[in-house]
Amino acid sequence: MGFEEVELKGNVHIQSGARSNGDYGLPAGSKELRQRNQLERYLNFFSTLAFSATLMASWETVGGSLAAGLLNGGPAGIVYGMMFSTIGSVAVAASLAELASVNPTAGAQYHWTYNLSPKSNRLFLSSFQGLLLVFPALPGALPHWEPDPGTGFVQPRKLSHREIPGHAVDLGSFDHPDNYQHLCPAGHGGHRGSSWNHAIVFLPVTIAVLVALAPHNPNEFVWNTFVSGISGWSNPGVAWAVGLLGVVTPLGGVDGVTHMAEEVKMASKTVPRSMIWGTLTNGIMAFGYAIAVLYCMGDYMEALTSPTGYPIFTIVYQATGSKTAVNILMAMGLLPGWIALFNGLASVTRLTWAFARDNGLPLCDFFVHIDRKHKIPIRALFLVAAVVVLLSFIQIRSTAAFNAILSISTLGLYVSYIIPLILLVIKRFREPQDIPRGVFHMGRWGLPVNLFAIAFAIYVSIFLPFPAQVPVTRENMNYAGPVLGAVMIFACVDWVVRGRKKWQGPTIVSHEDRR
């Protein structure tokens, strides 16, 4: 395994690579101890691309989020929304990829915020960004699939239309400490193969069955049918924007692979390419799947009012006439969701580990530990797993409270993209000479792409908190805005009480081989 030099604050340099066991005889709480707890680099471009492509599970997620688009916008709203979402998400991925190429670390967004902020407020902004990134990341793994005895289908647990069924989780999966280097053959080959199964096997089979068995709708229905008013949103523009979220959400995790950067070979080159190609691949697959489903869709209102709560089940049942066939085809979307589960768990674990390494969490010296046998941050892994398990129990008491926690995931992600990108654009205008270039950069296209990415992310963030239906009730209320506001208030209070005394910003700066 190759070595990578890392720089510590205070001009101390070490090498991360082959390591001895234990805590190196260094005192607890020391900067050197936190930095020597480094990860092994074993992921190459293809395994990293597989990670990125599978993490979003976009075509699978589109199937689970059809209700949002059918309720607001209709078939044409979904089609053109998918195009807009893909272009916007690729712009966000490319903009973040520039930053990842310069500083490919597991902390990602809050590291970039620190580097781009004015010295006078970089500590507060990076601490604020870190909490704003870690807190929303945890609930993303909560939804899971279950059998519904009333319909005979295996379906996502009924939550809200903001959920991402493609990122499904079953608590039994926590029996496994991690999925890459130690659960996949040859370090990454098994993971790569599992990833491409969802693209070259499951997706074509699903589309082929629908196209072969279902009657086809005319082009006018798919490309020119806009729907508004069913949900109570009578303004066509607002209805389309609210329904757009059903196709924006599947492409929301463009940053997932960046948190694995410290396990990637030649990360400054590999991670940016994986972000962009993974997002583009998912967008193309999701678009193809959406087109096929809309052409093969039967009765519109029957699908929208599906007893399962998910139109895709009724659409497939209309095409096949068999609940067994529905379960088989839905399982083809569920199985990649299991891979996405492991990817999401690993990504959030690395983010949590990085935040602990930077002294952003209580008991940071405990959670920064790298297990000497598995070579993963296993304590951070169990912390994330424990939080997810505890959050899942909330549903027993209150589904509304559970949905409120879950609703923050996508909104928190987009806000975490906006902060460093705005700082990057400001720096482009004020101090363009101080912006370092990584292996990947967009040259003169950087500024317009950055501006479009910011506009896209802000637009999405404005409408993410909107309820899917009006009038608003306790059951259909979208709690994303209030919950995110609560997290922001907590981040500010934490800064006053603890952060300003302990937070010194990122403690590691990558100087890897950029060849």
From TrEMBL:
PROSITE patterns xref list: AMINO_ACID_PERMEASE_1 (PS00218)
Keywords recorded for this protein, A-Z: Membrane, Transmembrane, Transmembrane helix, Transport
Gene Ontology CC annotations of this record: membrane
BP terms from Gene Ontology: amino acid transport
Signal peptide: none
Official protein name in the record: Amino acid transporter
A Pfam entry, by short name: AA_permease_2
Record has Transferase as a keyword: no
Annotated localization: Membrane
Membrane topology qualifier: Multi-pass membrane protein
InterPro entries, per the entry: AA/rel_permease1, Amino_acid_permease_CS
Main location: membrane
Residue intervals passing through the bilayer: 42-59, 79-102, 195-214, 275-295, 335-356, 376-396, 402-426, 447-467, 479-497
GO MF annotation terms: transmembrane transporter activity
